[in-house]
Structure formats: C-alpha cells, structure tokens
C-alpha cells in the first residue's frame, strides 16, 4: 500500500461515530450481550473478507466496516463490565480489557515478521470466535433485564455473576436495582415536557465529568492517538533511521501493554483522577519535547546526533504514560445513573 492508501486505511475513525450511535441504540433495545454477539459475528465476517480480498479498494471498504464495528464491541463490553462488576473491581476489569487490546496488537506485529499477512488474518479470526462462544455463555446484564421489567431473570443473572451464591446475599443489591428502575419508570410517566426529561443531564454531577471527558478525548486524539500506530514506522525513521520497523512497532505496543499493566496495580493506591491527570500532563510535556527537538533539527540549530536519543525516549515515555492513564476508568467519575450514557 502507498502512503496515501495507508492514510485512508487509518481513516476508519470517521465511521466510529456511527458505530457509537448504533451501539447505544442496540444496547438499550436488545442489551449489551446481544450487541457483543453481533459485533463478534461482524468481526469474523470482516476477517474472512480481508483474507479473500483481491484489491486495495475492498480492503478499504472492509476497514470502514471494522471502524463501524469497533464501538459495537467496545461500548457494550465496557457497559457490561460497569453493570455487572462490583465498584471496587470496575477500573481493574476495564484496564484488563485495554491491556488485552494492546497485547493483541503487539502479537499481530510480532507475527508479521515471520508469517504472511493472510495467515495472520486467519489466526486472528480465532479470537472473535472464542469471544463469540464466551459471550454466548454469559447471562444478560441484570441492569438491562431489570430495566425491561424482567426481575426474575435479573435475579438469576445476578446469582450467576456473584458465583451462584444464596439469594439472600444479593437481596439488598437486587432490591436497590429494582427500586432504581421502578422509580425511573414512575418518574417517566409523570414527565410531560422535554425540559423535565433532559433536566437530569443539565446538572453539575453530569456536566462537569462530561466536559472533562470531551476535553481529554479531544486532546488525546489531537495528539495523534488514532494515527500514531499507523505512522509509527514513519515517525521512528524520522527520529532514528537505524530502528528496525518491526522492532519499533513491537516496542511501541509492548510499552503500551506495560503501561496498562502498571495501571492495574497503581490505581488502587494513586486513585483514578490523580493518575489520569498525571499521565495526561506528563504525556503532553513529552510530546512538547519531541516537537521542540525535531524543530531545532529542521532549523539546524542543534547537533541532532548528540540529542537523537531524546525524542525516542520521550516517545516511549508518552506512550507509557497515556496507556497508564486509562481513559476507560473515567466513567467512574459519573454517578451510577449516568454511567451507561457516559460509555455510549
């Protein structure tokens, strides 16, 4: 593929918005579990289409569907974790999901050095198949079942998720779940205006976390989070031409994985907010150092051979820091009533 074709291949992020909208609609109507099943089937179909493709055009079209399908799998899976997990486990489970994504990317890059691309695609098809079978065996979210008035099924699902414990041990949790959706249902019957309908989403507990999320994702994306991986080889060649391209991308993914792994153990002690803002600020500082050094190199104001290690070190540091400050955990800034909307 040419550089222009690689650019189009990496532009799947434009279809992410439609995917998020679709995942929100499907998640509310058919539940997170069924949405994940649809996403897994779509991934399997895309993998086989990639394998059978004979032109760049087909690859680009399928990649657009992959971009559409990414939110279809991520949003309901994160929502499912938030709904079924106990509060003290949510951040860790969300971080493990992020770690799994990074590990899969690193695994594919490492295989690319020794195995043909189409063989890698067939190997990668195994994982959505395993995901499809695993999700099929899971119960539906108790929150979604309760919201649809299926309280008996919600109780059975909650018992399964808590390790087939005795009903008396989940009685308070089930009652809280039932009361929450019963109150919401009663309040919806008395709402007659759009102002009252949207008033909960204009309150301070919702707006402040929402503004923080929008700003952080905007800054994170502006720094090149979507394109950094695609142009990792080009970036390394500019910073240090001696780097092997496969080693460079493998190191990039490995450091991302280490950052996500460290996050799992650090977050119980440092806290989500402090860790989030620390990684955000220090990663921005690292990007600034890289930009300054490369600018001075282009202006021939410094001897780049002396400082060539600085951009490489800062690049790896920023990668580690952005991975350690998992954006998934920011959903915990919201109150429980707003968590699902935040994920969508």
TrEMBL record:
Matching Pfam families: Sugar_tr
Organism, as annotated: Nasonia vitripennis (Parasitic wasp)
Statement: the UniProt record of this protein carries the keyword Transmembrane: yes
Cellular location(s): Membrane
GO molecular-function terms, A-Z: transmembrane transporter activity
Keywords: Membrane, Transmembrane, Transmembrane helix
Bilayer topology term: Multi-pass membrane protein
Organism ancestry: Eukaryota, Metazoa, Ecdysozoa, Arthropoda, Hexapoda
UniProt GO cellular component terms: membrane
Chain segments annotated as transmembrane: 6-26, 38-66, 92-112, 119-138, 213-234, 246-271, 277-296, 308-334
Residue ranges constituting the Major facilitator superfamily (MFS) profile domain according to the UniProt record: 1-344
Keyword Transmembrane helix: yes
InterPro entries assigned to the protein according to its UniProt record, in alphabetical order: MFS_dom, MFS_sugar_transport-like, MFS_trans_sf, MFS_Trehalose_Transporter
Protein name: Major facilitator superfamily (MFS) profile domain-containing protein
PROSITE patterns named among the record's database cross-references: MFS
